[in-house]
Amino acid sequence: MKKIIQFCAALAVALGVAGCYNDFDMPAPRPAATDADFADMERISIADVKQLFLDEHKSISDTGSNSSWNDTKYTLIGQSESGKDYYIKGKVQSSDEEGNIYKSLHLVDETGAIEVKLSTGLYIDYPM
């Protein structure tokens, strides 16, 4: 009887210790980027990106189809006048878990939003 109690106590301790951490297959997330990470770059707003596109193409209608990259209109932004690369600070909004936003994501900042088309679904690689 004493051995059964000791075995049960050891089993309870083992299960308690093993049950404390259940994310064995999921790596720790990367720390969020801060403004210091982009110190050598220049920030550009989504409104400015849209204006650069409009300056070149004069309209945001008829910019291409979703089924082909061949007729897609685009604008290369390049670097700022001071030679720095640009970055956009905003939030990424997307979830194609249920198939409602497939092969695209939306980048949103305080001046607007843009849709970014992708060549693959997101949920398989980045499940929420």
TrEMBL record:
The record's listing under Pfam families reads: DUF5689
Q: Which residues form the DUF5689 domain?
A: 76-127
InterPro entries membership: DUF5689
According to UniProt, the name of this protein is DUF5689 domain-containing protein
